[in-house]
Amino acid sequence: MGIEEILKLIETVQETDIQELEVSHGDWKFRIARMLPVPVQAIPASVGTAPPIAPQAPAVPAAGEVTEPAATHPYIEVVSPMVGTFYRSPEPGSDVFVNENDKVVPGQTLCIIEAMKLMNPIQSEIKGRVVEILVENAQPVEYGQPLILLEPV
């Protein structure tokens, strides 16, 4: 299998609803997976740690899409876009990306989710303050699991 055939498979995955493709050909084996955008959901300020909210529509919200606030001071729930391992810092022993009460800006890295040996940065889509970090460092996380609560500012 040549590079042109692999590129054609990548194009096919991009042009369809296929989320993941694994191909074996002789001694070669490779996997193509599409990363989903990070869904962000609002929850009322009076709620502490909330269970994951099941998707109600088949479409995944675009990264940074925020639902209308239900209260005057809602928190924004940053959820995991994939199954993987949650990390608060880029490598062991280095400073964490954010702590509780830190101010964040759009595009700022909040954490990393490692999936299949790939480090996937999760970035803030809003300007705000970190209210609570809901996951322990190096803990496995599920798709849609709440990771961090942000308060818009």
Tell me what you see in this structure.
With 153 residues, this protein is mainly beta. The chain folds into two domains: 3-33, no CATH class; 40-152, OB fold (Dihydrolipoamide Acetyltransferase, E2P). Helix content is 8%, strand content 36%. It is built from one helix and eleven strands. A five-stranded antiparallel β-sheet has the order 3-4-11-9-6, with no helix packed on it. Strands 8-7-5-10 form a four-stranded antiparallel β-sheet, with no helix packed on it. A two-stranded antiparallel sheet has the order 1-2. The longest helix is centred in the N-terminal third of the chain and has 13 residues, at 3-15. 24% of the residues are buried.
Task: Provide a brief overview of the structure.
The chain has one helix at 3-15; strands at residues 20-25, 28-33, 40-43, 75-79, 84-87, 103-104, 109-115, 118-123, 128-133, 140-141, 146-152.
Key traits:
11 strands; five-stranded antiparallel β-sheet; 1 helix; OB fold (Dihydrolipoamide Acetyltransferase, E2P); four-stranded antiparallel β-sheet; 153 residues
Topology (elements, then pairings):
Elements (H helix, E strand, L loop, with lengths): L2 H13 L4 E6 L2 E6 L6 E4 L31 E5 L4 E4 L15 E2 L4 E7 L2 E6 L4 E6 L6 E2 L4 E7 L1
Query: How far from one another are the termini?
Result: 52 Å
CATH fold-level label of the largest domain: OB fold (Dihydrolipoamide Acetyltransferase, E2P)
Secondary structure: helix percent: under 10%
CATH class of the largest domain: Mainly Beta
Major sheet details: 5 strands, antiparallel
Mean pLDDT: 79
Structural class, from secondary structure content? mainly beta
CATH superfamily of the largest domain: RNA polymerase II/Efflux pump adaptor protein, barrel-sandwich hybrid domain
Question: From the alpha-carbon coordinates, what is the Rg to the nearest angstrom?
Answer: 18 Å
Shape: elongated
Query: Number of DSSP strands?
Result: 11
Question: How many separate structural domains?
Answer: 2
Order of helices and strands: HEEEEEEEEEEE
* CATH architecture group name of the largest domain: Beta Barrel
State which percent range the strand residues make up.
Answer: 35-45%
**Unreliable runs, pLDDT <50, ≥5 residues?**
67-73
> Regarding quaternary structure, how should these chains be classified?
single chain
Order of the strands making up the biggest sheet? 3-4-11-9-6
Enumerate how many helices there are, as a single number.
Answer: 1
